[in-house]
Amino acid sequence: MILSGQAVFNKIINELSRLDAPSGQLAILQVGNDLASNIYIKKKLELAKTLSVKAQVYKFNNSISEDELLEEISNLNENQEVSGILVQIPLPSQIDRTKICSAISSDKDVDGFGYILGKECKVLPPTIKAIDQVLVHYNILKKDKKIIIVGGGFLVGSPLFRYYQEEGCDVELLNEGDDLYFERLQEADIVILATGGGAVFDHTHFAQGSVVIDASTIASDSKLYGDLETSLIDGKFSFSPVPGGVGPVTVAMLFVNFYLLNSLVLDL
What we know:
Pathway: One-carbon metabolism; tetrahydrofolate interconversion. Keywords: Amino-acid biosynthesis, Histidine biosynthesis, Hydrolase, Methionine biosynthesis, Multifunctional enzyme, NADP, One-carbon metabolism, Oxidoreductase, Purine biosynthesis. By secondary structure, the chain is of the alpha/beta class. It has helices spanning 6-17, 35-50, 66-78, 97-102, 113-116, 126-137, 157-166, 181-185, 246-261, and strands at residues 25-31, 54-60, 82-87, 146-150, 170-174, 190-193, 211-214, 218-220, 223-225, 238-240. The chain has nine helices and ten strands. It is globular, with a radius of gyration of 18 Å.
């Protein structure tokens, strides 16, 4: 079964559409011209327009210094007309990602960086919420299932692993180079792929009847690709595609966080 995110996305947006949009601005900070970032920012702006949310992109050259970017965030934290801030990842090498993400006020942290960094937070990261929304929509229960997360990255793998541990799940974090890397994948009921993208996994790597959630994204030739090569799966296991799986739901959950930070209650 293909676990499309479109139906999940539509349900969330229908819920948001019933509410008045927050009056404040959603500030989107982008440094450089990363292709995947451009694609996702475009999707965020399109959704903002649909929901009548005021969104503004603050775009900076790759040469911006860390101090300059911190000053921009400080100004947005103090700006009463801004009620949500997100920093599009990746950032250039001269900028400390942790320092930048830590600088965002918890009252405006729509990406849930506070949770990722183990600090004060008011919302969970959108990708964590999106993965759970996809599983719930397709009646895939985590209870009594062996879950393996592949890749311990900053945005997805590491915080998702901690979240599932907190929920009492039977979860394991698998990184490249670990012993019996591919053999251990065969033991999992649910696999979350979060290595960053590049189609390094295929139908031979997962057990019959398992569930594979592809939460990776890489851009090439203006297209998005994930970790999973899907052409020969042929019903062996259920999977979420890239594009069209977790990605659109993540964008929707970002806006859910924006609404929640603005004291709007949602039944999701």
